[in-house]
Amino acid sequence: MEVIKGGVTAAKGFEAAAAAAGIKYQDRTDMALIYSKKPCKTAGTFTTNLVKAAPVKWDKKIVDEKQKSQAVVINSGIANACTGAEGYEYCRETAEEAADILGVDKDGVLIGSTGVIGMQLPIEKLKKGIELLSKKKGSAIENGTEAAKAIMTTDTCEKEIAVTIEIGGKTVTIGGMAKGSGMIHPNMCTMLSFLTTDAVISRKAMCAALRSDVEDTYNMISVDGDTSTNDTVLLLANGMAGNEKIKLDTEAYEKFKEALHYVNEYLAKKIAGDGEGATALFEAKVTGAKTKEQAKVLAKAVVCSNLTKAAIAGHDANWGRILCAMGYAGAEFDPEKVDLAFESAAGKIEIIKNGVAVDYSEEKATEILSSPEITVTADIKEGDKWASAWGCDLTHGYIDINADYRS
Q: Which residues participate in the annotated binding site for substrate?
């Protein structure tokens, strides 16, 4: 596998664009388009929140009915959530407008929205935005980057990546872009992820690969514990790489799944590290577990703990908060067997051994915890399974952003 420059336009046959439609923001682009020259098989996972945004319902119907797609239209600023029949009708109008302008099947036009909940979309601005997007779309790396910027809300940076693998002598590419900064606690925030590939792959294989991998990537991040109404991960495959079809339970499938995991984990970590007001990406890694599920439950509890997140913000090696979070996580373990260590680019330091503090330097611990990427490793010494979860520190900046988000 090779990491290459680019995002959603890296795979053959995919184009993208960004436009300023003035949906909510007046000083930046706020609409994006992903377009494929050939119809794509689609796979997707969606929020488990009972309150689902209109575009989530729209996209889920397309994926469930196995419709092929050639276009994804995304807007930022307004989430089109809790908007009733009118909001869903706007999805239909958006799809029809995109189909008419782009010359694609309206039944396969996917839609993504992110932003304020409860507001209706200014549909005429949205339609004009689609026309702008159609004129600006292209396959250059920059087109993908601009699209990644256009879907941002409180994000501080765009999030994109692309990789290539070789399957049967053919180069297969997977690219992706994502957005997310607050309301991040996926259960499949406002988290959106769009993945493109030119692989020839069976629908069964691509759906299985995506659904299983989401559990170990996007579902293992948390910024604030809020599962959004709009969480969506979409994977589009247009088959233009010309490889032999990838099928379930084959060597080619495992290679594709590994590459997809790399892309998803990269984007998930980018979202976690860009949490609203955050200054550090915080990884909790639990090793020595009996089962992977046990490790996942314990790791997720640590990154979700507000007390632990606040300690990370203060560069304070307050390990008691970590052990406490593990204790109420709901997975059994023996606290008197736990080894705990902090690690970053500044070094590694053991904090507790068999559940008891060791003689460590608070100054060195503070130095390690002052890095922009920090890992705490907890070895519970019960087996050989492990899992990681990712979050961020909790600062005053989170309150500053969310206290007046609508205004």
A: 153, 179, 190, 276, 402, 407
83: Cα separation from own chain's centroid? 24
pLDDT in tens, 235-278: 999 999 999 999 999 999 999 999 999 999 999 999 998 888 88
pLDDT digits (tens, 9 = 90+) for 275-332: 888 899 999 999 999 999 999 999 999 999 999 999 999 999 999 999 999 999 999 9
**Which residue ranges are tagged as binding site?**
153, 179, 190, 276, 402, 407
* CATH superfamily ID and name for 2-273: L-amino peptidase D-ALA esterase/amidase (3.60.70.12)
Reported pTM = 0.92
Q: Which residues are known catalytic residues?
A: 190
Domain 281-402 matching CATH 3.10.20.340: the answer reads: yes
Residue 77 pLDDT > 50: yes
What distances in angstroms separate CA 117 from CA 76, 128, 348, 402, 406, one per listed residue? 11, 22, 43, 13, 9
Per DSSP bridges, beta strands 69-78 and 110-116 are parallel
pLDDT in tens, 187-209: 544 589 999 999 999 999 999 99
Distance spanning both ends of the chain, measured CA to CA: 45
Report the run of H or E that residue 167 belongs to, with start and end.
strand 159-167
Q: Count other C-beta atoms under 10 Å from residue 281's C-beta.
A: 24
Question: Domain locations in the chain?
Answer: 2-273, 281-402
